[in-house]
Write a structure and sequence with these properties.
- It is a single chain.
- The protein folds into two domains: 235 residues, Rossmann fold; 161 residues, 3-Layer(aba) Sandwich (Rossmann fold).
- By secondary structure, it is of the alpha/beta class.
- The chain has a seven-stranded parallel beta sheet, with helices on both faces. The chain has a five-stranded parallel beta sheet with strand order 10-9-8-11-12, sandwiched between helices.
- Helix 8 links the parallel strand 8 and strand 9.
């Protein structure tokens, strides 16, 4: 049995990956959320596809949960509830955060007599691990140690080589780990795209958070583009801390006629949203899904405050495409938009086909194959061999949060901003 542990059941990159893994894997998969945070659209997708899921509160002693993943491990687990659920000969856990790994560590102590545990950690973000604390706390040090195999040798999976190299530079040491692509479902048959619409449409789908700065960059370019005759509709799907700022910017620039905020979208409806889109702009898995459907996709570089891009997904190679400071040439986003809207039907059709071909590298089957091969490689998890001090960890987490509230912990504040 494979258990996928995440921090919430709100639609995001990790959650959508877990959903695809559950849909395509030949083995049974259960999703576990460390918090009660969720959105109805994602829960609906789980129900529609009969994918079992649990909240941390389903295993806690007092049947209570939390909205902060970092605080979940301070709530005692119920031995009875845990033993009732984890009763297979081997329980295989894949987590995407330090909190998830700590949760499995605690579980393994309770089930060790009836179920052996295997654990690996997916590193799906280039910023949330290995962070530095203003006070060098136990918590911050563990965020680095997890990358070095603190919870087991061979148990770290990086989503591309660039992220692995980036963390090696940050930590100042070599890191070992397999590469697991953030896989997508690749259809055999998709809509043929012959030309751009009479009223071109660019869409973006994803959480509206500060590091996804491409939405704001494009909005700020639109008045000049429109005045030069390059008119298009920009539809933005998603919610988040950045939504108010974006809406205010649209209003201040008088772009209400051209920019539409569509709110959250159900995962099952994402493919349908591509039907009348001429182009996509963004990052992460949704960009790959759009490309797989033949929608030419402009790369939104994470944490890029300037209106710059690497161009289309087809202007990159390998598994790395949206991180900052890659070795691909930087292009002015304005120039790429002008190029998009100036494509002839033949050029557009060719670009559409090339995106479909490029996206095949990221098939979900590749992700499943890595999880299966890593299962054979890693040893059974033995909590007694892992020197984790849970009390010290929770104390240092509370200290980080308190000093942030007091305004004297800028580094932890920046970490929270990235995650939210």
């Amino acid at each position: 049995m494979l258990f996928l542990v995440c921090e919430s059941l709100k639609m995001g990159g990790v959650q959508s990956l877990y959903l695809r893994l559950a849909l395509e894997s030949s083995k049974p998969i259960t999703i576990i959320s460390l918090t009660e945070s969720h959105d109805d659209a994602f829960i609906k997708s789980l129900h529609e596809n009969d994918i079992p899921y649990f909240y941390y509160s389903d295993f806690s002693q007092w049947s209570i949960g939390t909205k902060r993943a970092t605080m979940a491990n301070s709530i005692p687990l119920s031995s009875r509830k845990v033993l009732l659920q984890f009763n297979t000969p081997v329980s295989y856990f894949h987590v995407s955060s330090l909190s998830g790994a700590v949760f499995v560590h605690r579980l393994s102590k309770l089930i060790r007599n009836q179920s052996k545990v295997k654990l690996n950690v997916g590193i799906y973000h280039g910023l949330i691990f290995g962070w530095k604390s203003s006070f060098n706390t136990y918590y911050s040090r563990l965020s680095s140690e997890i990358l070095k195999g603190f919870f087991g040798e061979f148990g770290v999976l990086f989503y591309n080589k660039v992220v692995q190299t980036s963390y090696e530079k940050k930590l100042g040491c070599a890191l070992s780990g397999d590469i697991i692509p953030i896989g997508i479902r690749v259809k055999n048959e998709v809509k043929e795209r012959k030309s751009i619409s009479q009223e071109p449409k660019i869409i973006s789908i994803g959480r509206l958070v500060p590091y996804k700065s491409y939405n704001l960059n494009l909005i700020e370019l639109m008045p000049d583009l429109i005045s030069q005759g390059f008119k298009f509709q920009f539809e933005i799907y998603g919610e988040g801390a950045y939504s108010t700022l974006l809406e205010e910017k649209v209003q201040s620039l008088g772009l209400g006629e051209y920019v539409k905020f569509k709110g959250l979208i159900e995962y099952s409806q994402i493919s349908k949203s591509f039907d009348d889109a001429d182009f996509f702009i963004g990052c992460g898995t949704t960009l790959l899904e759009a490309s797989a459907e033949g929608v030419p996709s402009i790369i939104g570089i994470e944490n890029m405050n300037q209106a710059l891009t690497y161009g289309f997904l087809t202007d990159t190679s390998g598994y790395s495409y949206h991180e900052k400071d890659l070795e691909f040439p930087l292009l002015q986003l304005r120039d790429v938009i002008v190029k998009c809207l100036s494509l002839t039907p033949k050029e557009y059709e060719k670009l559409s086909i090339s995106h479909r071909v490029r996206a095949r590298l990221f098939s979900i089957e590749s992700s499943i194959a890595v999880l299966n091969s890593n299962y054979e490689k890693i040893e059974f998890y033995n909590p007694s061999e892992v020197n984790l001090n849970l009390f010290r960890l929770q104390l240092s987490i509370m200290f980080e949060q308190l000093t942030t509230i007091l305004g004297v912990n800028k580094l932890y504040y920046n970490k929270i901003k990235i995650e939210n």
